[in-house]
Structures are given as C-alpha cells and as structure tokens.
Amino acid sequence: MPTQPPGPISLQDATRFVERARQADLLSILAWSYPSDLIRELCDQAGAGRVRLYLGVNDEDLPTIILLATDDAGKDMTSGIILDYAWPCPPECDSDSPLTRAP
Length: 103
Hints:
By secondary structure, the protein is α+β, with helices and mostly antiparallel strands. It has 3 helices and 5 strands. The chain has a 3-stranded antiparallel sheet with strand order 2-3-4, with helices on one face. A two-stranded antiparallel sheet has the order 1-5. The chain is globular, with a radius of gyration of 15 Å. The two termini are 26 Å apart.
C-alpha cells in the first residue's frame, strides 16, 4: 500500500512517476483517456465512493484500463457501469504535455 493517501499530486511528481514507469518498460501504452461524461456517469452511480482501475489486455492483445466504481467499503460495484475501450496514447496523445514527452 502507498504511504500517501489518494489525492492530488504535483505535475512534477506525476512526471517523475511516469518517467519511472517508462524506464521500467512496463507497457507499450503511455496513457489512456475516457470521455469525461462516462467518468461522471461512473462516479454518479448510487453508492459509488471510489473508482478502481484494473490493468487488462483487450481482444486486440493491447494493454487497457478497466474502470469501475466501488462502494465506501471498497467493494467492486460489478453490477454497475464498467468502462473499457479507452483511447490509448499512442496514437491519441497530447504532444504538448510534459507527461507525454517524459523520456
């Protein structure tokens, strides 16, 4: 478990974390994005207290992120909305972002 509670971090910390992951060559995908209305729908479900992300491999054998809500006790809300089919980066990247440009 991380020693820090979940919450906002600085761009400097985010960039450092991303650089470490790339240096470790963890994934061929740099990032994923979802439409914000889907994230809001996920979070607005009755009983949703958190969002959990699972790493997966889709039917095209590409890494992907699965998102679902959990209740306040940390139980997966598997009967609710489950998101996948995120847009991967590359190719859907922000070439101006320091997180995308991180070595």
